[in-house]
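haha ok so turns out i had the wrong file open the whole time. this is the CORRECT one, sorry everyone. sequence first:
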Amino acid sequence: MTLIDKARQGRITTEMRTVAKNEGVDPEYIRKQIAAGRLVIPRNNHRKNIDIEGVGAGLRTKVNANIGTSRDRNSLAMELKKLHTALDAKTDAVMDLSTGGDIRKIRKAILAECPKPLGTVPIYEVFVNATRKCKSKVTLDTEELFDTIELQAEDGVDFMTVHCGITRVTVERLMKTNRVTGIVSRGGSFLASWMAITGNENPTYEHFDRLLKICRKHEITLSLGDGLRPGCLADAHDRPMLQEMIFLGELQKKALEEGVQVIIEGPGHMPLDTIEANVSLEKSVCNGAPYYVLGPLVCDVAPGYDHITSAIGGAIAAKAGADFLCYVTPSEHLGLPEPEDVKNGVMAARIAAHAADIVKLGRKDRDRGMSAARKALDWENQEKFSLDPSKFDVVKKDRRFKKKAGDKTCTMCGEFCAYEVDSKLRGGAV
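then structure:
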């Protein structure tokens, strides 16, 4: 039985109780939302030591960090360093997007050291292996694809991105448009190219029932990927993107009927004034399923700073109802991220998520605590309430000079500290 099956029978599981406790909500609420497909708890049956995380309606906005090798940079030691950097920065989930080196070895090593839900994109491993065998053309073997999905499930992967919305119909629509950037999804481009060469349908769409059987067996959460997401503002909300979202909504409904948990992935690049409408559309078309957005990035001209462009969009999306933010690092459009990029990406996404949750969930206590500590020049509690205490401590020690005994001010204002002046004013000392 899957988690959805149990929820529909009225059973509140240990996972549901854990999420309820962590989020401060009634376990019955968690059960109902899982049964309705509006909330997921990604956890493979094979995984034992994992931090249980819920993603979806009424919960804290979660953050995912992407790591993984490429052909040109495939050091396992570096990926493990990035993993621990992301964990130290308090990411809620991790995805291994490796396309270089021994992909299974890398995945298993990451799984062994990752206490958070771990996701993958199985089509990457399939096409990397196929390219190594036959470098002259794009090949895809359906049996190898499903064998890989099964293998990754057996290894313990908790959620998988599958590009089921890339179909002959959606690709045909795409070819009739004048997109600036075309297909920017790696998995989407692989599938679209193979379909164009062979004339065959996307196997994960054509054999969706087979995919669901694997997910039921291992309790895999499907992350239905947006292979036709816009890669720039000019391409946002065109017909191919919208057609794909409609298909994903239909597939989510079918998966839910079969007891399989589903997340819907979303763009990508979107202008500020379209983000709320995009989230509302996903919730309507995809039956309230948890929405997982990459950013979204609100401008195209800030390479090196795209953790900021995505945090702006992520805050708006999460406030509007998006449930899961995939981080974007400063090196997003420049190259494979370094550990410092990973940290900056996680922190930017966490700030966006927190800013949204203040409004979405009314979670203001932490900010109120920080404000009170600032007023009191209480540096210890300011560090406690900070989203990144390590950064707070480093800057505080670096920027504060030795002062006379009892002086708690920082170098921003020093003797002209407004907090001290205000306190004296209120105490009648001014």
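The radius of gyration is 23 Å.
again sry for the mixup
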